[in-house]
Amino acid sequence: MDNKKLLELLNKQYNFEIESAYIYKAMSLWAAKENWPGVANFLHQQALEEMFHASKLQNYLLDIDYDVKLTSIAEPKAEYSSLKEVFTEALEHEKQVTSNFMEIMKEAKEVSDYQTEIQAQWFLTEQVEEEATFNDLILTLERINDSAAGLFQFDAQLAQRSFSKPQA
Ligand code: FEO
Q1: Which of 140, 139, 135, 133 is nearest to 155 (CA)?
Q2: Quick one: which atom of ligand 1 is closest to the CA of 54?
């Protein structure tokens, strides 16, 4: 595959996945500082999942002999006013990821690059789940409406998450 624009989009997304991990790691550190260990765990697991996404893109780029490049990452936001703000920003971030893969898919279709299309398809399927997860968490927080018992249970539930590498 030698489509320059498509290769650059893939390399950019590879870096964006690593940036995603960095952002979730910063959110996790904030949650730990605020005494939400379950939320901190959930966001740490999310960061691991983002690094898996980055590795999947990296492997694809290496397999097609692309010279993968790491670019600089901006310092992530470290302070949040509430759990709802964290998950709302996470959802917005995931929507950006989805939009990026749609652009990759569009370009791959335009140049009839079926192999990249298959890669983009895997990520777009994954994004349905990613957006749904954060959406559900925001809805749960809205229902809890700052009840102490509800937030305690919410945190306990998020403590259960453990990232395991999905079938690629
Ligand atoms: Fe790798 Fe959350 O998208």
Answers
A1: 140
A2: 1
